[in-house]
Write a sequence for this structure.
């Protein structure tokens, strides 16, 4: 018999999640809405509505997993990015709002280009590549990831969101690309967390794929590898853009400068951190 109302169910869940999540109310609302097949506005409009037994059971299971730290996005199987819903799984990083800065800068960079060719390295869920394909339909988009399961998620997102022309390739950074292909823009959100970083022991990252998070040399090894390989894959004057850690901008600039990149610039996220660095291959190279 249904005895627990939406209001009571939320109150119980918020109390339980308050000690493990900074967004306990939001988490509870998202999970309850998922459990009853409604949106969060419904929860506020009908707080007295009683849960059916199967709905309550589903919600309790969700809350128990969230209380153990499982990310909400992995429980619901989706995350919003650039106002679109992307499928996610434990095989991919969860798209984050700060990565929208990289997309915004990429769109601005190629706005006046005629049929630009863009490469997304370490595509994961495909959030960057799919968004660029939908926002810049004239662009030719390529996307690479070393993980075939991650590429399966990216291909699903591309198909479901209508970005069907992306070329997905499996391999290590630029390894699977044809030797003669050149790109006007290369973007990447690579692993940039150092192996000993304490952030790996808390929050959602505990459940995300480690190979997509962690890089040697204080988080800079993969950025260095990509920058080195990308130089020859860019057109003359072509751009390279990285998302990186909040305290890595100077180190990334040093790497790019040592490799001959020019016009190196940093861009701040909404919290004021320098989270994206962009540079150009010299037009004389």
């Amino acid at each position: 018999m249904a005895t627990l109302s939406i209001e009571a169910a939320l109150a119980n869940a918020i109390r339980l999640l308050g000690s493990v999540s900074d967004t306990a109310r939001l988490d509870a609302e998202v999970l309850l809405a998922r459990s009853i097949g409604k949106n969060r506005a419904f929860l506020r409009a009908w707080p007295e509505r009683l849960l059916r037994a199967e709905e309550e059971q589903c919600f309790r299971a969700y809350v128990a997993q969230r209380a153990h730290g499982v990310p909400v996005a992995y429980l619901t199987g989706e995350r919003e990015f650039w106002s679109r819903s992307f499928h996610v799984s434990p095989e991919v990083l969860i798209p984050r709002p700060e990565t929208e800065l990289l997309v915004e800068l990429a769109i601005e960079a190629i706005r006046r280009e005629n049929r630009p060719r863009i490469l997304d390295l370490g595509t994961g869920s495909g959030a960057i590549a799919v968004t660029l394909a939908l926002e810049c339909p004239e662009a030719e988009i390529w996307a690479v990831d070393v993980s075939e399961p991650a590429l399966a998620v990216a291909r699903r997102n591309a198909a479901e969101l209508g970005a069907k022309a992306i070329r997905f390739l499996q391999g290590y950074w630029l390894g699977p690309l044809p030797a003669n292909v050149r790109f006007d823009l290369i973007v990447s959100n690579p692993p940039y967390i150092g192996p000993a970083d304490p952030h790996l022991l808390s929050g959602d990252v505990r459940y995300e794929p480690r190979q997509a998070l962690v890089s040697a040399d204080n988080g800079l090894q993969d950025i260095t590898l990509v920058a080195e390989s990308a130089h020859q894959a860019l057109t003359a004057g072509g751009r390279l853009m990285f998302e990186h850690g909040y305290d890595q901008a100077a180190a990334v600039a040093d790497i790019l400068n040592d490799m001959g990149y020019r016009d190196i610039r940093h861009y701040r996220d909404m919290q004021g951190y320098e989270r994206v660095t962009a540079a150009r291959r010299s037009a004389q190279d």
About this structure: The longest strand covers residues 234-243. The chain has two domains: 6-69, 81-280. The chain has a mean pLDDT of 93. Residues 53-67 form the longest helix (15 residues).
